[in-house]
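=== RUN LOG ===
request id: a7f3
mode: sequence -> structure
chains: 1
length: 190
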Amino acid sequence: MRVTNRITSTTLLSDIQRVQARILQLQRQASSGRRIVEPHNDPFGAVSSIRLQSLLSRQTQYRSNLAAGTQRLESTDASLGDLGSVFNEMKALILEMSDDSQTAESRAAAAQTVSASLQQALAIGNRQLDGKYLFAGRRTDTTPFLSQGGGIAYKGDTGQVQLAVSDGQQVQVTLNGSEAFGAVTSEVQG
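=== RESULT ===
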């Protein structure tokens, strides 16, 4: 078979076009920094890349959730420690005032101290972290404890905020007013 100039030039032109297309593809990859510039370049690779990006995004969100949850739990723990200190001070004062040798003036002063301590406990119950109430249950935008009618009313709910920390696993990161203060127990409601 005889190879004509036309077949040779057509073959050569085809090879040049294929090489130019490959060079263009490599230039796109080099300029974008990605091996897969368009999904049709490597469909299986594109699917794998999308899955990996989704996994990385979820892992980043899980890390963020863990950091936020840890901060929230540490704030809750510190608040409960402060509340325990207030209650211990009130208990010591009440025990001191139960002695028959106390005068009416000292008992009146102690009553004012207890009242101030109750206001301090109310402030602890209404603490916030990043604009969200610690003890309001899932209603984190609602002030959980309000002075009302000579008492204190709980306006939060009994739910808990949970954050996803891995696929299919959530962790509770709040303590509602009912759990922390016994706010909706029958003794308090009665």
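=== NOTES ===
The mean pLDDT is 86.
DSSP finds five helices and six strands in the chain.
=== END ===
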